[in-house]
């Protein structure tokens, strides 16, 4: 029996908006006949109104002592932990992520809360010595104001937590625009957060499509209602948001796409490298910003590595995400159609490996060992393309789906050049047993995150997450580094000498014999 679809609407200052005449049907991508939710999409004026409500609520929230705000974060963590399985299953139903990965994603929220629950007691400034007598210098972290957070749906609850938890902790109010296609688990996320003690208006959820969101954000920035924008999504949209924020002298936090390389050296543990490539290339059906793009393999071990990876990929179980599989479906029809366009980049010089076919898995185009009924959802064959060249689009562009390219190199310097060539700079990996190669690779690569003998995917809540180049503008999420995204430094000098002391002018001069030399 199919459950009744959820009626989902935006919430601004604690009030749900009216239902739309024609709500968007959000479907389960592993069972496309199942409508998970009917989503009433808001318009640009609603987004702007949410920013206005957040601005009205923010000052009072900022006056709550930071340790008490930290207790609210602790409450969120406890609520998420108590509802971990239900939230994970909501993620799987919404986007087709395997239950194992969905549980890991929910754990990421819990870990983030665990880290930040104590940061309310550690929002340290500094006491700085002055060059003047009877004068003290101080620094303080202040909240920015209103944060507009726009997130993608491939990590529909973990990534929002990376923004929202530190934003709330530091005294900001938030307007969150989740992806429409992951609306149900976003609602579960919002419900848990809203019951943790957050005042009305401090956290608002707005369901809207991309263009209406952009227009509402443009209006809100023009009215001075937004002080920080956080965006996770494509590089193309990130560039538009960066340009918009730049017109208002703001620096957004942009976490964008990736074409993440994995270098396999001649001394690598090839079995381990193939295992890492399998997970980072095909986990979540390759729909991660940190998914493996191209394996750059030393020519001396290329054949053996490809043999191992192709064998592991062919044997991997694909299908129903509620069962024991490597990956499930594409997230929705839009991503499926886009992935099919990437398959058009396969050339005659590529050797195609990894499955019994390419494209959508069906009764007419089967995959051996498929789990479930392929006709139920948006399932696609995994693809390994051996013989990828630097001029291929499949080498230079992000391919959001279950496809891995393989190319070769002779010297490590060449591997680093190939790794940086696409211009992305999010994540990368090197498999080697030589420490010098690992450190030489790290110092030469342009990525924000480097893994040694581990996959390109896998973040921890207390390590900075973010990329450079086409992958972002240098902002970092997670750990203590994200605090700089949601606070601004304020300095204060306090002169209690009873007289005007002018810096750089009224400074005590010390006499020294600087011309002295030893005989």
Set out the fold topology.
Layout: E1 6-8, E2 11-12, E3 15-16, E4 24-28, E5 31-39, H1 44-63, H2 66-82, H3 84-95, H4 99-116, E6 127-129, E7 135-143, E8 146-150, H5 158-169, E9 173-177, H6 183-194, E10 203-205, H7 210-222, E11 228-232, H8 235-247, E12 253-255, E13 260-264, H9 270-282, E14 292-298, H10 302-315, H11 333-343, E15 351-353, E16 383-386, H12 393-396, E17 403-409, H13 412-420, E18 424-425, E19 427-431, H14 435-444, E20 449-452, E21 468-469, H15 483-486, E22 487-495
Helix pairs in contact: 1-7, 2-4, 3-4, 3-6, 4-5, 9-10
Summarize, please.
With about 525 residues, the chain is of the alpha/beta class. The protein is about 35% helix and about 20% strand.
Structure description:
With 519 residues, the chain is α/β, with parallel strands linked by helices. It has helices spanning 44-63, 66-82, 84-95, 99-116, 158-169, 183-194, 210-222, 235-247, 270-282, 302-315, 333-343, 393-396, 412-420, 435-444, 483-486; strands at 6-8, 11-12, 15-16, 24-28, 31-39, 127-129, 135-143, 146-150, 173-177, 203-205, 228-232, 253-255, 260-264, 292-298, 351-353, 383-386, 403-409, 424-425, 427-431, 449-452, 468-469, 487-495. The protein has two domains: 15-257 and 472-491, 3-Layer(aba) Sandwich (Aldehyde Dehydrogenase, Chain A, domain 1), CATH 3.40.605; 260-452, Aldehyde Dehydrogenase, Chain A, domain 2 (3-Layer(aba) Sandwich). Helix content is 35%, strand content 20%. Helix 12 (393-396) links the parallel strand 16 and strand 17. The radius of gyration is 26 Å and the shape is globular. The mean pLDDT is 96.
């Amino acid at each position: 029996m199919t459950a009744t679809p959820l009626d989902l609407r935006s919430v601004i200052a604690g009030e749900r908006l009216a239902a739309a005449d024609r709500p968007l049907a959000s479907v389960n991508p592993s069972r496309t006949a199942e409508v998970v939710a009917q989503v009433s999409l808001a318009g640009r004026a609603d987004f702007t109104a949410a920013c206005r409500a957040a601005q009205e609520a923010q000052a009072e929230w900022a006056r709550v002592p930071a340790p008490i705000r930290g207790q609210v974060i602790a409450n969120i963590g406890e609520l998420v932990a108590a509802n971990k399985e239900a939230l994970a299953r909501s993620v799987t139903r919404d986007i087709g992520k395997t239950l194992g990965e969905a549980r890991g994603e929910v754990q990421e929220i819990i870990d983030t809360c665990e880290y930040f629950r104590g940061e309310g007691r550690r929002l340290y400034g500094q006491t700085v010595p002055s060059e003047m007598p009877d004068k003290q210098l101080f620094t303080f972290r202040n909240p920015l104001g209103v944060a507009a957070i726009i997130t993608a749906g491939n990590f529909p609850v973990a990534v929002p937590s990376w923004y929202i938890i530190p934003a709330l902790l530091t005294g900001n109010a938030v307007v969150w625009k989740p992806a429409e296609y992951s609306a149900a688990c976003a609602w579960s996320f919002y419900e848990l957060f809203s019951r943790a003690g957050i005042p009305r208006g401090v956290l608002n959820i707005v369901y809207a499509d991309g263009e209406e969101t952009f227009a509402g954000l443009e209006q809100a920035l023009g009215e001075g209602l937004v002080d920080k924008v956080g965006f996770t999504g494509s590089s193309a949209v990130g560039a538009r948001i960066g340009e918009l924020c730049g017109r208002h002298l703001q620096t957004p936090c942009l976490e964008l796409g990736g074409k993440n390389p994995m270098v396999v050296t001649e001394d690598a543990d090839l079995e381990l490298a193939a295992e890492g490539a399998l997970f980072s290339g095909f986990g979540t059906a390759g729909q991660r910003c940190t998914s493996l793009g191209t394996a750059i393999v030393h020519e001396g071990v290329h054949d053996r590595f490809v043999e191992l990876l192709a064998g592991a990929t062919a044997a991997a179980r694909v299908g129903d995400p509620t069962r024991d599989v490597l990956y499930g479906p594409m997230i929705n029809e839009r991503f499926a159609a886009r992935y099919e366009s990437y398959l058009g980049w396969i050339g005659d010089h590529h050797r195609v490996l990894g499955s019994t076919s390419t494209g959508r898995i069906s009764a007419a185009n089967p995959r051996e060992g498929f789990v479930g009924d392929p006709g139920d959802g948006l399932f696609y064959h995994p693809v390994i393309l051996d013989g990828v060249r630097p001029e291929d689009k499949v080498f230079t562009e992000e391919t959001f789906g279950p496809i891995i390219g393989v190319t070769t190199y002779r010297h490590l310097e060449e591997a680093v050049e190939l790794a940086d060539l696409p211009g992305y700079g999010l994540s990368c990996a090197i498999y080697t047993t030589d420490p010098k190669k690992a450190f030489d690779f790290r110092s030469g690569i342009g990525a924000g995150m480097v893994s040694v003998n581990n996959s390109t995917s896998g973040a921890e809540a207390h390590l900075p997450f973010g990329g450079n180049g086409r992958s972002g503008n240098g902002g970092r999420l997670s750990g203590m580094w994200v605090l700089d995204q949601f606070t601004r430094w304020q300095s204060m000098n306090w002169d209690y000498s009873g007289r005007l002391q002018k810096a750089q002018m009224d400074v005590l001069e010390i006499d020294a014999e600087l011309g002295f030399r030893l005989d």
